Amino acid sequence: MLLRSGSFFVSISEKDMKPDTLTTTFLNLREKLHRSAFRFLRDDEDAKDALQDAFGRLWNAKHPESESEAANKLFAVLRNICIDRLRRASITTVELHEAEMTPVEPAIPDNADQLERLISSGLSGLQRKVYELVAHDGLEYDEIARRLDLSVEAVRMNMSRARQKIRDNYNKLKR
Known about the structure:
This protein has two domains: 1-101, no CATH class; 103-175, Orthogonal Bundle (Arc Repressor Mutant, subunit A), CATH 1.10.10. It is 73% helix and 5% strand. It has seven helices and two strands. It has helices at 21-41, 44-60, 67-100, 107-119, 125-135, 141-148, 152-174, and strands at 2-5, 8-11. It has a two-stranded antiparallel ribbon.
């Protein structure tokens, strides 16, 4: 059964008509989750969409057993959804910008490639491969898992570690 809570729809198990752990946690943390998504995306509607996507992905997966597990999964999935949306928006923006550019500035891609190599230094071979398949080829985690003969969770873990290493390297460059 779907119930409306604010601008969100939540599902309640019909067995006992009580909200499950995921739904309860989602309802309790909805505003914090929304603020977190908004900090990433800077758009209210995109933040709401990301929140719905996060709940939907977790709803279709194995349900968490505790509220702390549910909260951790909600924040982690929401963060990854926001990062993916930002990455896709960035790729679209770059494609639009490249379409408008004249071929006068050939040094920019070289600098971007050098910067990416510098930022992604220190990644293990598997992390680098997973990062390239996600960031450059735009593949989903399940496709990468099939190609590399890994579990989807292993792909997520390697991508998370790669993002963290890239973030750390980038922050070192900014100083």
